[in-house]
Every structure is written in structure tokens, then in C-alpha cells.
TrEMBL record:
It comes from Blastococcus saxobsidens (strain DD2). It holds the Pfam family DAO. Coiled coil: none annotated. Its EC number is 1.4.3.19. This is glycine oxidase.
């Protein structure tokens, strides 16, 4: 019997497994196609300040704590996995196109200032000096120097290598349910007909976490996002550019030597995998408005995946009402950002039985009726 079995081999599941194995626990990860869910589509933004939302201050604090961990986490991961993760630390630029866009950016900046966050307002010329490929039609921007990015797929590859090097066992099978015996979670049931018995069960299945047999109610829903990957973008952008284009959001994230991610739609359409003409059109139209040079790039890949949304947009971390059953899911749009802090918190829980204070506000019981 393994000490821990993790359902899900995406970024969160593998990071939890790696960190738990480093704590001396025996760990098995079960996933029929590791990294083919939301992790495959992730743009890799590490942007808690840019993403700061009203009434989401506890999530912001968690995001800032995780961002602070990222440089050391990336260095440890590259050493353990032997693969680069593409950490970029050149900041994030947010720009607007019209008066309404700029009013939204001014409101965001005021909110950031109220919270003591670092963000600088830029005039159009200063924004274009920062990123010369920007159109001359932008009306201004915000520079968030501390919001960075990584290559999400490279991080997953490194986590897979690091986990296996740490002794984690990977079972390529579909999770069919949680085994519950005497009121306690004791393992996972597999599509192949077998089970993986374990002392603790961690559910890290992203948008697929809800409805798993044996699991108590988990308030996670799929939030569809369409995303584009472009080739031939060498030298186009130094860092992440986010924009409001007449009220519509778009982001452009450079990675690798000549690649660019453009995203992303936000759609409540269940597990619809369709990449639509309208979605591609809107993303390309807005990206080209922001950076005209995008029109010359190769459209290398289109993809639709599902963010794991929760009622308050914050993750579900820690124990459940079922002894032995732990959640590490519901990260919505912040899965990459929150990978280090989630992995450390869940590994601490598995090794010591205590959930760190920083993760305590994110247990699933926050949604229980008073």
C-alpha cells in the first residue's frame, strides 16, 4: 500500500506528489493522460497583482505567497527534473484602447494602491518604449513589474521528470472513483478494474473533480477557455501584455524562443471541447489590435480546455468530511500561479496532519451553510 495516491497528473497533482515524495512519503499518481487537461492549455501567467479582484483579498494573499515561492520552486524543479521551465521575470504590461478601458484600468490601479500593491501608470509613449510592438493607438497602461510567467508545458514536463526521479509511481489509467471503507477514504478505483490502496487520497482532477463516485459534494464546475498558440514571434514581445480592447480582455504571453500564447475566452458551456470560429476570430482580432505584428505569425495550435471554477473563484485545499480524503483542486484561472503554495501546503498536511495557516481559508467547508 502506498502512503498517498493522487488522482490527477496535471500541474497540481504532480507538484503535490513531488513535494510529498520529498517529505519521505511513498506516492502514486493516477492519470490516463497526464498533462492533457487544463495544464496543456495554461498560459503560464504568474500575475496575482494584475488579477487582483474585488472581494478576493484572501486569494490575492495566497497568490502573492505563491509568487514569492516561484523562483526557488523553479530552480529546485529544474535541478530535480533536469529540464528548463521558462521562468520570465520581466513583468506584465496592461493596456487600454478607449476611455472606458482606461477608466477600468484606473479603477484597477486605485484598488491595487488601496491594497499596497506595486503597479505604475504609464503614458502611451512609455508603454510603447517598454514594448515597441504595441500599436500607437493604445491610450495608456499599467506596469506590474512583479507579475511574471512560465512555460506551463515545460513546467509539467519538469514536474513529471522530478516526480519520477523522487520515486513517485505513475499509473496511466482512468480514475473511476474513490474507495471508501468504514467511512474512510482508502484508495482509488480504476477503469481497468483494479484499485490503488493508500493511506491518504488526494483529488487533483481539476474541472473533473466533481461527481467522482465516493467523493462528497465538491463545488467545482468547468469554465471553458479557448486559447491560441502562435509561432514565429521571436523578438515580438519581451513580457506578458494584457489588454482591454473596447471592454474585451485579451492577453499575449511569449514563451520559448519564438512562441506566443493568445487567450482566452471564458465560457460556461460545460465540457464542450469545440474550438469555434467566433472564439478564434475574437482572440486574433483583439491581439492584432494590440500588437499588429501578430497578423504575420503562424497560427500553430488552437485548443479548448476547462478551468476548474468554484463559487468564489478560489481553490479547494485540504481535508474533507471524509477522513483520509484531501482536495487540491478548484484553482480556476490561477493553477500555474498557485502550484508551489498548493504543493507545499498539501505536502505539509500529508506529512504532519496539519494544514498550514495560509491554506486554512480555502477548505471546502467554507461553503457549508452556517
Amino acid at each position: 500500500m502506498t502512503d498517498v495516491v493522487v488522482a490527477g497528473g496535471g500541474l497540481i497533482g504532480l507538484a503535490v506528489a513531488w513535494r510529498a515524495a520529498r517529505r519521505g512519503l511513498t506516492v502514486t499518481v493516477v492519470d490516463e493522460a497526464p498533462g492533457r487537461g487544463a495544464s496543456e492549455a495554461a498560459a503560464g501567467m504568474l500575475a496575482p497583482v494584475t488579477e487582483a479582484g474585488y472581494r478576493e483579498e484572501s486569494l490575492l494573499r495566497l497568490g502573492l505567497a505563491s509568487l514569492e515561492r516561484w523562483p526557488a520552486f523553479a530552480a529546485e524543479l529544474e535541478a530535480a527534473g533536469g529540464l528548463p521551465v521558462g521562468l520570465r521575470t520581466v513583468g506584465t504590461l496592461v493596456v487600454g484602447f478607449d476611455d472606458d478601458d482606461m477608466r477600468q484600468l484606473e479603477a484597477l490601479h486605485d484598488f491595487q494602491q488601496e491594497l499596497g500593491l506595486s503597479a505604475a501608470r504609464l503614458l502611451p509613449r512609455a508603454a510603447r518604449r517598454r514594448e515597441p510592438s504595441l500599436t500607437s493607438r493604445i491610450r495608456g497602461g499599467l506596469l506590474v513589474a512583479g507579475d511574471h510567467s512560465v512555460d506551463g508545458r515545460a513546467v509539467h514536463a519538469a514536474l513529471l521528470a522530478a516526480a519520477e526521479a523522487a520515486g513517485v509511481t505513475l499509473v496511466r489509467d482512468r480514475v473511476e472513483g474513490v474507495v471508501v471503507d468504514g467511512g474512510r477514504a482508502t484508495g482509488l478505483r480504476l477503469r481497468s478494474g483494479g484499485t490503488v490502496p493508500a493511506g491518504s487520497v488526494v483529488v487533483a482532477l481539476g474541472a473533473h473533480s466533481a461527481g467522482l463516485p465516493g467523493l462528497p459534494p465538491v463545488p467545482v464546475r468547468p469554465v471553458k477557455g479557448q486559447i491560441l498558440r502562435m509561432a514565429g514571434a521571436a523578438g515580438l514581445l519581451d513580457g506578458t501584455v494584457r489588454a482591454l480592447v473596447r471592454g474585451r480582455h485579451v492577453y499575449l504571453v511569449p514563451y520559448g524562443e519564438d512562441r506566443l500564447i493568445i487567450g482566452a475566452t471564458t465560457e460556461d458551456r460545460g465540457f464542450d471541447p469545440t474550438v469555434t470560429a467566433g472564439g478564434v476570430h475574437d482572440l486574433l482580432h483583439d491581439a492584432i489590435e494590440v500588437v499588429p505584428g501578430v497578423s504575420e505569425l503562424e497560427l500553430a495550435e488552437t485548443l479548448a480546455r476547462w478551468r476548474p471554477g468554484t463559487p468564489d473563484n478560489a481553490p479547494l485545499l485540504g481535508p474533507t468530511a471524509v477522513p483520509g480524503l484531501v482536495l487540491a483542486t478548484g484553482h480556476h484561472r490561477n493553477g500555474v500561479l498557485l502550484t508551489p503554495v498548493t504543493a507545499d501546503a498539501i505536502a505539509d498536511l500529508l506529512a504532519t496532519g496539519e494544514l498550514p495557516d495560509r491554506a486554512a481559508p480555502f477548505t471546502v467547508d467554507r461553503f457549508e451553510a452556517p
